[in-house]
């Protein structure tokens, strides 16, 4: 067994690997860029080595610097995590030449599975179901259009060397095929240095279901059941679960056996994932094989009781697998939500900054894999993942309920985050029923996500909670010392809660251990030990335990629960009467400007001053997190001035173009 391993990664996955290594008695070495000097993975490691400037291309992706860090620290093996160099054969070969063990598959397996065109051909030869499509590389947009017509629209254009949703486009007609080819090629070159594109039939109403495999160097290979990964946005996974609500034992066995057959065909060793696309008729087709540990591996660990990182380390050390296929178990249900620093109310744009408050949830069946801490920073240089929140239950219903409760109790302040969106998806009737496809988010939120658009399961709950919170603040104000005798502040029992323009009269009566409330002709009992200043309002309302996230902005209370936001103003009955007479302030008209919707790099400006543009016409291209975002005209207009130039680093809401 290894005495010391280096983790060639950062963030939550580096911390995750370190936890297992520490339990195994193995010392760990972290690598870090200048931007990650104070990162959590650096603090957790036994040793840490600086590998360069913040950009990944100058630090985490530089093979020579990782190898040098191994030599300096004396690490005998490297765990790559996921992303960065985890699927780079040249990295494996460089480590081998330096006498350092790579904790992962052999380079030849990476090469054969890393090329989507070659892997599809190999899969077909191994007897694995494959999607109909073109077997070769597409040379240009003209060939893309011809091939798409032969395969039949809709088609998927995707980078041969791609992954993570980058370099992928769906085309429904010739125009979209041409533009999709250009965008997919550009993203593929920027992300992978390889612009090769392939085309295959786009499966409608698809599910994304993958099989976890594990193989050793002694000829043993097993599958560890499936993961449902259909909840995706722009081809990137958002929520995963194991097992799949769509898969029965017969399909599980068939998919698992094909995955093992493919792994054996490339003499695979270590952890790997074979991804399938499954249609409504339970037909499944090979998508790709990821030759690394997946982001969503915790749901497999929670349902099998196995530590995949430990198995990878032991396999790399030459040990055989500890179990056979017949010993693989399926215990309960697990769900993972990816918590990102992104703004779901602004089309999921990345958010960066310092975590002013960071309070992850805890409890039975709750696991949080994170790489951040309160006071730490979410950098502009890397993936904006904050954590992976995983819950486990005896069945899917319990796992979902625990996920809802955990998301309600997950408090983050300082950066925008997607917790409300995640809770809204988990609480959605269609998700609850297990009716999932990869189009779920696009179909259920076609115009984007707004927390106020998500209805409260019980609209009375935020009304009652807001009334009690306000009464609590008023009672505290009435107890302030130094009040003029005879003019002490008196607190009313009657209040009006205003939410979305509607008035809700509520009577709030303090009593021992809580409050008695009268609302809409009914009596309620609320108990809570909440204190002003706390951001989580835990209570028991009519016997039901609840948790609301609370933010106070001036006189307004912003309450978040189950993905829904309630913006409440609590007034006395007389103040509510007067408030109804107040004019509403109109928002400023920004329609004359094209604003940058995200922090990023302005790659291209497609118009000039004086040019007339039509609705839908391309105006500019902004790159953020290696994804190109095309900004289009919302209406016909004439360009008055261009306020930014290609190459400029843009901030959120920075003016790019002004219209007449």
Automatic annotation (TrEMBL):
Enzymatic class: ligase
SMART domains: Biotin_carb_C
Reactions listed under catalytic activity: N(6)-biotinyl-L-lysyl-[protein] + hydrogencarbonate + ATP = N(6)-carboxybiotinyl-L-lysyl-[protein] + ADP + phosphate + H(+); propanoyl-CoA + hydrogencarbonate + ATP = (S)-methylmalonyl-CoA + ADP + phosphate + H(+)
Entry annotated with the keyword Ion transport: no
Entry-linked PROSITE patterns: ATP_GRASP, BC, BIOTIN, BIOTINYL_LIPOYL, CPSASE_1, CPSASE_2
GO biological process: lipid catabolic process
Occurrences of domain Lipoyl-binding (ranges): 585-660
Coiled-coil intervals: none
Ranges of residues in domain Biotin carboxylation: 1-446
ATP-grasp domain mapped to chain residues: 120-317
Enzyme Commission number(s) from the entry: 6.4.1.3
Pathway in which the depicted protein is active: Lipid metabolism; malonyl-CoA biosynthesis; malonyl-CoA from acetyl-CoA: step 1/1; Metabolic intermediate metabolism; propanoyl-CoA degradation; succinyl-CoA from propanoyl-CoA: step 1/3
A GO molecular function held by the record: propionyl-CoA carboxylase activity
Cofactor: biotin
InterPro entries (alphabetical): ATP-grasp, BC-like_N, Biotin_BS, Biotin_carboxylase_complex, Biotin_carboxylation_dom, Biotin_COase_C, Biotin_lipoyl, CPAse_ATP-bd
Keyword vocabulary terms for this entry: ATP-binding, Biotin, Ligase, Lipid degradation, Lipid metabolism, Magnesium, Manganese, Metal-binding, Nucleotide-binding
Listed NCBIfam families: PRK08591.1 (NF006367)
Quaternary state and interactors: Acetyl-CoA carboxylase is a heterohexamer of biotin carboxyl carrier protein, biotin carboxylase and the two subunits of carboxyl transferase in a 2:2 complex.
Function: This protein is a component of the acetyl coenzyme A carboxylase complex; first, biotin carboxylase catalyzes the carboxylation of the carrier protein and then the transcarboxylase transfers the carboxyl group to form malonyl-CoA.
Name of the molecule in the record: Biotin carboxylase
Species for this entry: Sedimenticola thiotaurini
């Amino acid at each position: 067994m290894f005495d010391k391993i280096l983790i060639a990664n950062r963030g939550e996955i580096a911390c995750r690997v370190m936890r297992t290594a520490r339990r195994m008695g193995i010392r760990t070495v972290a690598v870090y860029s200048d931007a990650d000097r104070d990162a959590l993975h650096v603090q957790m490691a036994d040793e840490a080595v600086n590998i360069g400037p913040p950009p990944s291309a100058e630090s985490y992706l530089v093979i020579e610097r990782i190898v040098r860090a191994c030599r300096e620290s004396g690490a005998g093996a490297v765990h790559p995590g996921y992303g960065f160099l985890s699927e780079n054969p040249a990295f494996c070969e460089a480590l081998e030449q330096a006498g350092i063990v790579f904790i992962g598959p052999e380079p030849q397996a990476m090469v054969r599975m890393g090329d989507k065109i070659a892997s599809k051909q190999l899969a077909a030869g191994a007897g694995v179901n494959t999607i109909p499509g073109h077997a070769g590389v597409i040379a240009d947009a003209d060939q893309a259009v011809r091939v798409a017509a032969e395969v039949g629209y809709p088609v998927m254009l995707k980078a041969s060397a791609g992954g993570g949703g980058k370099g992928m486009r769906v085309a429904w007609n010739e125009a979209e095929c041409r533009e999709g080819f250009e965008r997919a090629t550009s993203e593929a070159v920027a992300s992978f240095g390889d612009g090769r594109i392939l085309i295959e039939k786009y499966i409608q109403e698809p599910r994304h279901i993958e099989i976890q495999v594990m193989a050793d160097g002694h000829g043993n290979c097993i599958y560890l059941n499936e993961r449902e990964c259909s909840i995706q946005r722009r081809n990137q996974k958002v929520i995963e679960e194991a097992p799949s609500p769509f898969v029965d034992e017969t399909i599980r066995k068939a998919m698992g056996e094909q995955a093992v057959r493919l792994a054996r065909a490339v003499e695979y060793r270590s952890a790997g994932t074979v991804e399938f696309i499954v249609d409504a008729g339970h037909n499944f087709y090979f998508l790709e094989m990821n030759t690394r540990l997946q982001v969503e591996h915790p749901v497999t660990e929670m349902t099998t009781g196995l530590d995949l990182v430990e198995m990878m380390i032991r396999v790399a050390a030459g040990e055989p697998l500890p179990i056979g296929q017949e010993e693989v178990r399926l215990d309960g249900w697990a769900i993972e939500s990816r918590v990102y620093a992104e703004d779901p109310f602004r089309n999921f744009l990345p958010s960066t900054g310092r975590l002013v408050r960071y309070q992850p949830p805890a409890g039975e069946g709750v696991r949080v894999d994170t790489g951040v801490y309160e006071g730490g920073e979410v950098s502009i240089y890397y993936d904006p993942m904050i954590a992976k929140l995983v819950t486990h239950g005896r069945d899917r219903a319990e796992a979902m309920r625990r996920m809802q409760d955990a998301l309600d109790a997950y408090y983050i302040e300082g950066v925008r985050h997607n917790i409300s969106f995640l809770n809204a998806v988990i609480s959605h009737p269609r998700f609850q029923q297990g009716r999932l496809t990869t189009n779920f988010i696009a179909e259920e939120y076609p115009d984007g996500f707004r927390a106020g658009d998500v209805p409260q399961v019980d609209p009375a709950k935020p009304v009652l909670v807001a009334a009690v919170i306000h009464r609590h603040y008023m009672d505290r104000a009435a107890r302030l010392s130094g009040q003029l005798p005879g003019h002490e502040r008196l607190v009313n029992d009657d209040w009006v809660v205003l939410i979305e323009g509607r008035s809700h009269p509520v009577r709030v009566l303090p009593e021992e251990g809580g409050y008695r409330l009268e609302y809409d002709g009914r009596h309620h009992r609320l108990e809570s030990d909440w204190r002003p200043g706390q951001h989580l309002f835990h209570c028991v309302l009519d016997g039901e335990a609840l948790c609301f996230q609370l933010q106070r902005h001036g006189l307004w209370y912003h309450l978040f629960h189950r993905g829904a936001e309630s913006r409440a103003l609590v007034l006395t009955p007389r103040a509510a009467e007067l408030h109804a007479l107040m004019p509403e302030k109109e928002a400023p008209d920004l329609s004359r400007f094209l604003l940058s919707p995200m922090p990023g790099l302005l790659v291209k400006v497609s118009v000039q001053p004086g040019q007339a543009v039509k609705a839908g016409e391309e105006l500019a291209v902004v790159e953020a997190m290696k994804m190109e975002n095309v900004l289009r005209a919302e209406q016909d207009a004439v360009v008055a001035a261009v306020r930014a130039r290609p190459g400029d680093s843009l901030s959120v809401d920075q003016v790019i173009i002004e219209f007449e």
